[in-house]
Here is the input.
Amino acid sequence: MAKYKRILLKLSGESLMGEKQYGIDENRLAEYAAQIKEIADMGVQIGIVIGGGNIFRGLSGASKGFDRVKGDQMGMLATVINSLALNSALMAQGVKSRVLTAIRMEPIGEFYSKDKAIAALEKGEVVICSAGTGNPFFTTDTGSSLRGIEIEADVMLKGTRVDGIYTADPEKDPTATKFDDISYDEVLNRGLKVMDLTATAMCKENKLPIVVFDMDTPGNLKKVMLGENIGTYVHC
Here is the structure.
């Protein structure tokens, strides 16, 4: 039995690069689709938000002279490209899925609404929510928090390339130690870079727990759903 009935899975756009320097690694994409299929076959209702950092990140664009609003809009479109790629990979593995967009762009994707998303989830479809919140100055972490709260998910699973939350960046500090369990307040007080402040505050206020785990290791998503103690659990 799956530990959670309905989830919001946040995937990193940068992780989609896999072994490449830019864009989408087809092997990594297929691995993600296979992991998602595993839990879809368990009957889990799956909402997904994926970032766009492998293609364009609005904030870094602003530092290079792009207008911040235009840069964020470009970043939103990058998330749509990644969402379409994941949608295609899931369909290739026999998983029914659909892309909803926060900005109107039919026929690329349907315009997002909570009712539409929940109806699709209850029919057993994987729902990929793209284009962030549809507004500049908000990250895809905040988009994930918002969508997770809206679809009434039991948990937000944040798939990253590290196996949880540490006292410091484990890729830079070998003395960093991992948390198995941590409160939102401690995340905020320690200034840990789990998600941006807006996203963390939204999850805390709406009591949406988060599991941060390594999505790049095949099988880990299913382990989280089976209740195995991997990653870091963030809660009130």
Notes: The mean pLDDT is 95. The CA atoms of residues 63 and 71 lie 10 Å apart.
